[in-house]
Amino acid sequence: MAYNFDEIIDRKNSNALSTDGFREHIFHADSTMKFPYEDDEFVRMWVADMEFATPQVIVDAIRDRLEHRIFGYTKIFDPEYYNTFVRWTEERYQWQFEKDHLVTSNGVIPALYELVRFICKPDEKVLFVTPSYSYFKRAADINSREYICSDLINSDGYYTIDYDDFAVKASDQKTTLCIFCNPHNPTGRIWSIDELKQVGDICIRHGLWVISDEIHCDLLRIGNTHTPFAKIFPEYDKIITCMGPSKTFNIAGLMISNIIIPSSAMRSVWKEFHYGFENPLSIAASQAAYAHGADWLDHLRVYLDENFKFTGEYLAKHLPDAKYRISEATYLAWIDVGSYLPAEVDLPLFFANNAGVLLEGGNMFVRNADGYIRLILACPRSMLEEGLRRICEILNSR
Ligand SMILES: Cc1ncc(COP(=O)(O)O)c(C=O)c1O
Q: Which of 49, 184, 185, 332 has the most ligand 1 atoms within 8 A of CB, as the residue to mutate?
């Protein structure tokens, strides 16, 4: 193997959210919150970043940029940034967009926070499907916009869209925006062209804006393909696409994402209100990732596929009543352990206290998530095995 995904890298003393931020982020607590485990005894499977080193081509590009030694105010002026990224979307998704449509942001979440405010007037509503990445709700909450949820249909762990329900909620006069996660966090679904068409047709019928959050689009199980939402509706300029190198190449801390806004009116609003500077090291990293990171990504995907398979086999053997399917995309495993625990159990707290595993689950995913835990599988197999061992052991001991 050309890359060592089995390497354990100690993240202590690196200001990592994963090691130092879990009390605040999972439990809304401060450093006084105590557990039966020391902090470094936890197996961390919660925040969606990877335990793998970012590819060397990215480290080298950052180092090259460092050697320049001046880090003054920076924006993306060089057309090579666009050229590199659009080559990536063309090769991977047979999709391209105009250069003018691309803006950047210090992450997809900051973009969501702004776009909700730009799109929805104070009395208008945001629609998304549930279970959901919690920041979709948060984007509505912090802007004091109402949100409406349409529950996905769960058939034995396979999630599909309830089009009738979605259409009713989209037809609400006050619904003006749908935030759609494609591929979907937490279920790992890759929406088919037909599914995207149906959702898109409903949104278009009611004149909704769509923010298609495609941050997980590069992390597909081998053999699967991703379809950008906007590719299906090239004439409809109210679909905004969010992509980025942060999940794909484990550079979330570099805070750079690509936002494609086809509407010139919305781009004008964005340009007026968005504080649009970028970190020069992040620009170098992002460009290098898309120019030279494909080989690393191909190998990563092989390793992730094996981790998903390993998880399935482990659960089948040790936790036969858990419901688990290999996610079509993402490095997130979405597992129903509801038959092992009473419904009222706070899942993250239970596993932190009783198994020494940090994970997310249940109502952290807004709703329609009872009994489910989400595990990050982007870690060395030895860590994964230890996390699964602890989870299975505590559930079997009850
Ligand atoms: C669906 C989705 N959108 C956005 C993000 C975060 O994006 P960023 O780090 O670019 O703000 C995540 C991270 O887990 C995610 O799962």
A: 185
